[in-house]
Specification:
The complex is a heterodimer of chains A (about 120) and B (about 110). By secondary structure, chain A is an all-beta fold. Helices cover about 0% and strands about 50% of the residues of chain A. The radius of gyration of chain A is 13 Å and the shape is globular. Helices cover about 0% and strands about 45% of the residues of chain B. In chain B, strands 1, 3, 4, 7, 8 and 9 form a 6-stranded mixed sheet that branches. By secondary structure, chain B is an all-beta fold. Chain B is globular and about 40 Å long. Chain B has strands at about 10, 20-25, 35-40, 45-50, 65-70, 70-75, 85-95, 100, 105-110. In chain B, strand 7 (about 85-95) and strand 8 (about 100) form a beta hairpin. The chains are: A mainly beta (about 120), B mainly beta (about 110).
């Protein structure tokens, strides 16, 4: 079964840090780019970041540049999102999504919740 | 990067057809034939239903179709069914490996 499973969400204070993980299975992990997409409570989807299949190319949405980094360990079939200097507005359900060949997201996890609050 | 513009809500009766629009700019929707659509039921992860403007992934009903004209993409659902009631999001490639989503449209089946 092709799937990705996120973990690592938690409640953290403003200014704090958190690392999310996304484990892939059922497919050749190293062949696919991976994205992070977030959804604030009762809000729409927001694209956050992408990392290429080999981890060498990374892009981030403007609001998280300089605060979030992403990496992957293809030997462990795992993607990471390191979030620093967290803000209240980063509160959201964070999804990991696999990039299909057509610049779209064909496999999504169930998400992991990040709450930034004092 | 501003979000793509979608109507907040649309509705239709079972068996009818509805269309959801998604308006962007020449830097995203109008610049690439790389618009995708996602269906999201409450408490569930998004599901890909249309990619590359008008292509359906395997297993997606032919009742779902997509199109694009200029800076506006559209999703049409024909033969509405109760299970189509969900939120729908468009997404476009926006260059330099970045993407932009629409604000989402809530579909109500009356």
């Amino acid at each position: 079964q092709v799937q990705v499973v996120e973990s690592g969400g938690d409640v953290v204070q403003p200014g704090g840090s958190l690392r999310l993980s996304c484990a892939g299975s059922g497919f050749t992990f190293s062949n696919f780019g991976l994205h992070w997409v977030r959804q604030a409570p009762a809000k729409g989807l927001e694209w956050v970041a992408v990392i290429s299949n080999d981890g060498n190319i990374k892009y981030f949405t403007d609001s998280v540049k300089g605060r979030f980094t992403s990496s992957r360990d293809n030997s462990k079939n795992t993607l990471y999102l390191q979030m620093n200097s967290l803000r209240v507005e980063d509160t959201a359900l964070y999804y990991c999504a696999r990039e299909a060949a057509g610049y779209d997201f064909d496999i999504w996890g169930q998400g992991t919740m990040v709450t930034v609050s004092s | 990067q501003s979000a793509l513009t979608q109507p907040a809500s649309v509705s239709g009766s079972p068996g009818q057809s509805i269309t959801i629009s998604c308006t962007g700019t020449s830097s995203d929707v109008g610049g690439y034939n790389l618009v995708s659509w996602y269906q999201q039921h409450p408490g569930k992860a998004p599901k890909l239903i249309i990619f590359e403007v008008n292509k359906r992934p395997s297993g997606i009903s032919t009742r779902f179709s997509g199109s694009k004209s200029g800076n506006t993409a559209s999703l049409t659902i024909s033969g509405l069914q109760d299970e189509d009631e969900a939120d729908y999001y468009c997404c476009s490639y926006a260059g330099t490996s970045s993407y932009v989503f629409g604000g989402g449209t809530q579909l109500t089946v009356l």
